[in-house]
Amino acid sequence: MATVEIRNVRKSYGPVEAIKGIDIAIQDGEFLVLLGPSGCGKSTLLRMVAGLEGITGGEIAIGGRVVNHLDPKDRDIAMVFQNYALYPHMTVFDNMAYGLKIRGIPKAEIRARVDKAANILELGRFLDRRPSQLSGGQRQRVAMGRAIVREPAAFLFDEPLSNLDAKLRTQMRVEIKRLQDRLGITSLYVTHDQVEAMTLADRILVMNHGVAEQIGTPLEVYQRPASLFVAGFIGSPPMNVLDGRIDDRGEAVLLPGGQRLALPQARPTDAGRPVKLGIRPEHMAVAAQDFSGGFSIEVELVEALGADTVVYGRLPDGESLLVRMAGIPTVRERDRLTVAPQDGALHLFDAVTGRRME
Amino acid sequence: MKPTRFIDLLPHIVLIVGVLIFAYPIYVTLIGSTWDSGTIGRGGLPLWPGGQGATNYAQAWVGEAGDRAMYTPVRTMMLNSLVMALSIAVGKIAISILSAYAVAFFRFPLRMAFFWLIFITLMLPVEVRIIPTYKVVADLGLINTYAGLAIPLIASATATLLFRQFFLTIPDELLEAAKIDGAGPVRFFIDVVLPLSRTNIAALFVILFIYGWNQYLWPLLVTSSGDMETIVTGITKMIGTGESANDWHIIMATTVLAMLPPVAVVVFMQRWFVKGLVDSEK
Questions:
Q1: Could you tell me the CATH number of the domain that includes residue A306?
Q2: Does B169 reach chain A within 8 Å, measured CB to CB?
Q3: Which is the most buried residue in A95, A294, B40, B170, by most CB within 10 A?
Q4: Which residues of B touch A71 (CB under 8 A)?
């Protein structure tokens, strides 16, 4: 158990900068999820912590010890790979025991540790099998078992669930969460799946193009996205983003279609400034037909998901607007209706930088 | 049941004819090895076994004088061939798996240059480089030694390429998992790469053993004394130039004996051999 500190870490491949200075201190026992689209550098960052990639600049410290120049085996970490990376010719027991055997741990203790891990993961019956005789979920558990028996300072997960089908993924997600709660080992978890990130993380580091867009708890990231990128990446369906301008008195946002949405607090200093206005689809509700603070939309498509309904609407000026309503559909395609944002549902972003305006 | 049609039988007929064509000479050799030299010499070899088999094989095995000449005993030649074939097979596999490991898993300067250097030797068969090779072996004093027989044939581009291709299919994550588990390059090679390659090794062993066993030109050049004779060159030396009659009964017995080790290797390693050729156990 240990802290993991990443201090201004950079990675370049020739002239291309893949990681442009990431700073984060991960607490002992914390579960940090690195979230971002593919190619954002999240896997590279994880592999740098693991020691599988060199560090171009900055420092990584595990348990207070700078590990920049240590081999992976000396960093006291264990890693779970996307394709499990089990040794195909070894039994489940040998797969889990291999790292311990190399470290010269006595046989009896290896046996005890593997049995304990197998118990936690319900793998006891499979110890004599080869990976090829196991299902995807079982292989995934063996890969985690191999990490657990090492009793490392930190777990590193590299998209461990993306090779599983949807149902198994949900199940394994719960298992990982339960396991990490129980073992309390500092974990770094890479994923591009926002649901995994939201459910597993103590904190999420949202990455894009090699920079940290936002670091925060899942709810912070959802409720107060720090940039347009985070706003669009977290939440499904994604947040609506509309061009707008703050009126001359700084009390409302004016939209090109003529709507005027009052701001919760006046912002006189921003008067006249162009902004991007974000509203989550689930934070809008149907309002009276003549309500002035809402949007009049024509319904283009209705997706009934059972528990809720996603309405694809079009504004008079041609912009599209998504609204998510609870329950089964009450509107039909080509209906006209007025929807209004709920209190506190407006997010303002700088039109140029895309950063959140507080 | 439908009556069997000719068209269904045709493949079987073709196959049976094919087998007969291939098997007949071997059958003749087998039969010939059980008759005395007189019967064979007259040109009237019967197609059924004669009564001389035990005598012929015993004579060939210990190398007693035949009716017309003295020969190197088959047991000596078999031993020589066995040592040569085994050294070539084991040596080739050992060298090529190590060089393939280096080329496939390590990044070092001139890596691709070395790879191409190995590759180029593929275009130079033994026959092309036989004079310089002979010169080198002679200067090293390796004429009439097992080392001289085997070492020049050990370097193998084909096997290196084969192993390299196989190694490239081993996922990078496996290497990374081993790194995190604490296995160095040697550990990884012994604990992971070798066990994963075992079917490939078995298949190569069969091919290379037969390749080594059947070597003709090189042993012919590099051995001059009778007790270093290999069995393939030995057989050809038994056959005269036509000035005198040949001891066909002994030649045929020797030939039959010469076939046994390769057949045994194939029979015993067949399961592995086929597995290595068809299956990529992942």
A1: 2.40.50.140
A2: no
A3: A95
A4: 179
